[in-house]
Write a structure and sequence with these properties.
The chain is mainly α and about 60 residues long. The chain has three helices and no strands.
């Protein structure tokens, strides 16, 4: 479901939510979108990486 700013403005005008609630909701959604846009800075080292590096080592031995 997508809600536009215009719909939030209409909800405020009809008294469904307060202006403060609408602003807090927009702020919350903006922060969530920003957080999802940022890449996770944690580094993973899984089995595929191990195989890759072992393959490289094997080539150096030959």
């Amino acid at each position: 479901m997508q809600i536009s700013r215009q719909q939030l403005t209409q909800a405020v005008a009809q008294g469904i939510v307060s202006e403060e609630q609408a602003q807090r909701l927009v702020q919350f959604i903006s922060e969530e979108l920003d957080a999802k846009a940022l890449p996770d800075k944690s580094v993973t080292f899984d089995f595929t990486h191990v195989l890759y590096y072992l393959g490289d080592c094997w080539l150096l031995v030959l």
